[in-house]
Amino acid sequence: MNLKLLALAAALAASMFSTGTFAQTKQQFIPVLSYRTGPYAPNGVPFANGYVDYLKYINANGGLNGVKIIFEECDTSYATDKGVECYERLKGKNGGASLVEPLSTGITFALTEKAPADKIPIVTTGYGRSDSADGTVFKWNFPLLGTYWSAADMLVKHIGKKEGGVNKLKGKKVTLVYADHPYGKEPIPYLEEASKTYGFELQLLPVVLPGIEQKSTWLQIRQTRPDYVFLWGWGVMNSTALKEAVATGFPREKMYGVWWAGAEPDVRDVGDGAKGYNALTLQHGAEPNAKITKDILAAVHAKGQGTGPKDEVGSVLYTRGVIASMLATEGIKRAQDRFGKGKVMTGEQVRWGLEHLALDQKKLDALGFAGVMRPISTSCVDHRGDSWARIHTWDGKKWNFSSDWMQPDDGAIKPLVIASASRYAAEKKLVRRTPADCDA
Amino acid sequence: MLYRENGQFRVTYAADQQIFPVVQDRIAIVVLLALAFFAVPLLATDYLLRAILVPFLILSLAALGLNVLVGYCGQISLGTGGFMAVGAYTAYNCFIRVDGMPLIAALLFGGFGATLVGVVFGIPSLRIRGLYLAVATLAAQFFCDWAFLRIKWLTNDSTSGSVSVPALNVFGLPVETPIQKYLFCLSVVVVFALLLKNLVRAHIGREWMAIRDMDVAAAVIGIRPVYAKLSAFAVSSFVAGVAGAMWGFIYLGSWESAAFNIDRSFQLLFMIIIGGLGSIMGSFFGAAFIVVLPIALDQMLPVLGSGIGLHVDTATVSHATLMIYGALIVFFLIVEPHGLARLWSMGREKLRLWPFPH
Predict the structure, then answer these.
(1) Confidence at residue A1, expressed as pLDDT on a 0 to 100 scale
(2) Residues A30 and A137 in one domain
(3) CB within 8 A of A341, min separation 6: which ones?
(4) Is B159 within 8 Å of A185 when comparing Cβ atoms?
(5) Are strands B173-174 and A278-280 parallel, antiparallel or unpaired?
(6) Over chain A, what is the mean pLDDT?
(7) Do A341 and A406 fall within a single domain?
(8) How far is A226 from chain B (nearest CA, A)?
(9) Into how many domains does chain A fold?
(10) Over the stretch A174-215, which tens digit does the pLDDT of each residue have?
(11) Considering only A3-12, A111-120, B7-16, B47-56, which range has the smallest mean pLDDT?
């Protein structure tokens, strides 16, 4: 008995001390922080499957100019402290992490403090700190494709258009139902600004995560009868909100979710009740017919290498995982263009690559992303890149696009981003990067 | 044979009253501290320091604080997470708003802030006991959660409610690298453990224990319950506050109030129950069990799995970790309801007689 215990303890200790010191050549390491357990697993799983499947797909096609990708998953359960532990565990493995995708705004905040010292870029596709779009302060953060402020702006512009012009929003009532979490609170500064500019009345209703209990929230909505409801929820909070909307009789057509509140797991349980519910997309929607979806099915799933169920491939969150993975690997490829093709890139080099992304239509077509997303380019000043979105609407069975491509009004967002980033820099006693540093 | 105090005569009161009266214990603790201060920083990897040892030390400190209240004074509290949050945010506000505030002063202010809140929420303990008090302290937890989510001023008007601290240093020495952070935490924890050990051996500690064992009897022999209970709340929340400030400043670097939610309170309560109520040593055992074990399991399972030719995916590992961890908690509670510290002291007794059975 005692011997066994001793042996177990020794094995434990040994496994902790030997955190992967064997570096291999020609392998680029990408840590995958996912959550396949916990209350957000229904949404976390398809994203993680997409992310990992695309990496497998890249490897099946010869890697990045011959450099194979190795990856390792660590389950964060969407908890910040577990996420930090996962990051610490994986960052040094296999020659060092090239970048990290935390998939949680809370974890992003925590890692933002660590990235500059560790020299590992943080890619946050469509989430994270909105002010980190300012690359001169947030050197290591990349909120690619869109931030919550751009999302809020597009939603306001969209309902403005519905009303027949943004000036018609004057006197209207807009309610934000949000997760009481850094993620849900991100859009508030922009919406407060916009409510002043356009004269609509903003009501803020926080929901304590995981958001299974929303009775009082929707009672308030029934009392104030807002013209529109914006939903900034995640996981089970979204379907609960929709069920409550059905119960209180709030028209689903007047409900708009952010891109994290607009996937199949959010509406499937509600089914017909969610008919008419709209959500902003992060460029893509469900893409079962896209070339990349078919390619992944052929190259990965057909060979029995797929990570999740086959019929999930091409769903909204799966596709988002694929896009996130693609942007990460394209960043590495871009870095190889400058620092040597077929070489393993360091975190610092990958950071340069992400900062100089230039994916035009031709490249996207070649990658199989035609129609899934629009061209994107980033720069030292702009770490977000071009932000495009559409609205899609649930018809009871699937998501259908119901608007044209839109872009946020950067004239309105930029001053907010710069002001917020400057505040951060002042708090942290950071100096903005100079143009010389940008070229380096 | 090695561990026997025969022939060690104590001829002065000082010698009789010291913390470790047995020579072997003194040697062991010096060796342990030497290992912790010198060998660990040299040998351990960054991961071990940053992701395991630092949180272990900080949560041990919080568990020490809670043990004063629950283990020594017998007042069940579910508000530790809240007191930690008060500590973290008080320290943060001192640090951000006062220019040139030293780190240690900020941490201590965090402790004082938590003390005030702790004493206020300790007042109900004068009237209510046991499980009812646990419910009352739950109010502290929810109030703190609410305050740090809603009152913008407390988070320096941060848009997302998440706050972060700039580069830290102590007397000009930076606290940046994992080794520096580890050494800083270790020093603070050692100092506090020593202080608390002495406190619980002194008259205050004896008052607490008297109140714990039977408060009516304690009052009859002249112990003031008001003073004893509130001082336990004050000391406990002070330590929890400092631990909370360190959790935010040193371990997370950037945090929102969710870092100190009700789960944290439960986690700390489980730590001291598993580690041993009313034992300084037990707080460390409990923290080790709760912090290190899940991480170790999480890493072990894939290794073990591949050892027997089985591929274990991330989700399975995560689920299995929770199951094994839960089973172990139940196992230890059945085998030794008085906690790991009791196992330890039984081991010591056995060792004194070894190699003879009696």
Answers:
(1) 41
(2) yes
(3) A65
(4) yes
(5) unpaired
(6) 86
(7) no
(8) 23
(9) 2
(10) 999 998 888 888 899 899 989 998 999 999 999 987 888 899
(11) A3-12
Please name the amino acid found at residue A249: G
Torsion of Cα atoms, A155 then A156 then A160 then A162, to 10°: 20
Q: Do both A401 and A255 map to the same domain?
A: yes
When pLDDT is cut at 50, 70 and 90, the band that residue A25 belongs to is: low
Alpha-carbon span A425 to B78, nearest angstrom? 37
A266 and A408 co-located in one domain = yes
| Six token digits for residue A209 | 């995560």
The range of the structural domain enclosing residue A135 comes to 25-147+287-387+419-439
Chain B residues with CB inside 8 Å of A105's CB? Answer: 160
Answer yes or no: do A277 and A157 share one domain.
yes
Question: CA B202, CA B196: separation in Å to the nearest integer?
Answer: 10
A208 and A220 both lie in a single domain: yes
Instruction: Indicate if the pLDDT at residue A20 is higher than 80.
Output: no
Choose the closest CB to B45 out of A17, A74, A84: A17
> What does the DSSP 8-state code read for residue A139?
T
Backbone angles phi, psi at A370, to 5 degrees: -60, 130
Residue A15 lies in a domain: no
Interface test mutation site (partner B, options A15, A75, A118, A193, max chain B beta carbons within 10 A): A75
Q: Could you tell me if residue A11 is inside a domain?
A: no
A175: left (phi over 0), alpha (psi -120 to 50) or beta: beta
The confidence score (pLDDT) of residue B152 equals 83
Average pLDDT over residues A325-350: 90
| pLDDT level of residue A371 (50, 70, 90 thresholds) | confident
- Best A22, A53, A76, A85 residue to mutate vs chain B (most B CBs within 10 Å): A85
The verdict on B105 touching A (C-beta cutoff 8 Å) is: no
In this structure, the answer to whether residues A261 and A165 fall within a common structural domain is yes
CA distance B162 to chain A (A): 6
Helices (H), chain B: 13-17, 23-34, 40-43, 46-47, 54-67, 80-97, 103-122, 130-150, 178-201, 203-213, 215-220, 225-246, 262-275, 280-287, 293-307, 314-335, 340-353
Domain ranges of chain B: 21-259
Question: Rounded CA gap, B341 and B274, in Å?
Answer: 9
Mean residue pLDDT of chain B comes to: 89
Same domain, A275 and A299: no
Residue A107's Cα: distance from chain center in Å? 12
Q: What is the pLDDT of residue A303?
A: 87
Contacts of B166 in chain A (CB under 8 A): 427-429
One-letter amino acid identity for A305?
Answer: Q
Determine, yes or no, domain membership for A197: yes
Strand partners, A358: A377
Token code pair at residue A68: 């194979």
Which two three-digit tokens encode residue A282?
């992060």
pLDDT in tens, A373-410: 889 989 888 898 888 888 999 988 888 888 888 888 88
Provide mean pLDDT across the span A145-173: 89
Give the CATH number, domain containing residue A165. Answer: 3.40.50.2300
Domain membership flag for residue A12 = no
| CA–CA distance, A43 with B200 (Å, rounded to integer) | 49
ipTM: 0.81
Contact A206 B46 (CB under 8 A): no
Residue of A nearest to B99 (CA): A427
